[in-house]
Amino acid sequence: MRSKVQVVNEHLKNPNFVKTMNKALKEAAERHCKTYGVCLEGIKIQNQSNIIAFEKKPKGSSKIVPYILECMLKDDDISKTQKQYIEQACEQFPEHKIPNNIWNKKLYNTDKLQKIIDSYYNGKRPIDVEKCKSLSDVRKMWKKAKSINSANISFNAKVVLSGRSLYIGKKHYKVEPRDLKGKKVASIRVKTKNKYQWIRLDALLCFLDSGK
User: Fold this and answer.
1) How far apart, in whole angstroms, are the C-alpha atoms of residue 24 and residue 136?
2) Over 60: is that where the pLDDT of 103 sits?
3) How many helices and strands (H and E) does the chain possess?
4) Within the chain, where are the H helices?
5) What does each C-alpha distance from 37 to 32, 47, 56, 99, 148 come to in angstroms?
6) Hey, which of 2, 5, 17, 41 has its CA 20 to 30 A from 104?
7) Residue 162 forms beta bridges with which residues?
8) Distance (Å, rounded) from C-alpha 203 to C-alpha 209?
């Protein structure tokens, strides 16, 4: 003879019983949410003890990330904080509650975001959205591209070290041993305005190598 527990467990496994229970749970959850004036987008029941209600988002929520991106691309100030961009977006979308973690959320509609970026860079692609997991990653790429484009001086000279000679572009520098605290350190002399300055060769090569 089956026990009462076995009978109950068989009922719980019955698809029709589960369907009826889920329907009753949804209706109860909807009534509960209406009591608090919450407009629902949907209710998901993972099991009888785990019910998740999804609040319906106001219209235009999909425009928030593209708007923040455009504000960023138009801006010349790379020191502007994420919070400041959110405040700017809140003014544009006052009916939305924009969370701070929007910067770390997964990106959607990446093709649309890439088109926005490409339009600002005339087809060039210093920012590749496909390589970005979040809006925060896009911002990092934008700051890097902005820093490069706003540089006052840019160098593209070839540097060659051959024996005791260092060539930077067409300029030749003689590598000489310089006495530094009782040690001989390979250095070059560089003229700046009206005087010469010593530059350590190892420090110079380390600096150049870090830019590869």
Assistant:
1) 42
2) yes
3) 7, 8
4) 4-13, 15-35, 64-74, 82-92, 110-120, 135-149, 201-209
5) 9, 25, 12, 21, 51
6) 41
7) 165
8) 10
pLDDT at 55 over 70: no
User: Where does residue 127 rank: exposed (0-12), middle (13-18), buried (19+ CB within 10 A)?
Assistant: buried
pTM above 0.90, yes or no: no
Return the structure tokens found at 62.
Answer: 């999909």
Find the radius of gyration of the CA atoms of the chain: 32
The band of 51, judged by pLDDT with boundaries at 50, 70 and 90, is very low
Q: How many CB atoms lie within 10 A of CB 210?
A: 7
- Six token digits for residue 87: 């405040």
Q: How many of the other CB atoms lie within 10 Å of CB of 39?
A: 10
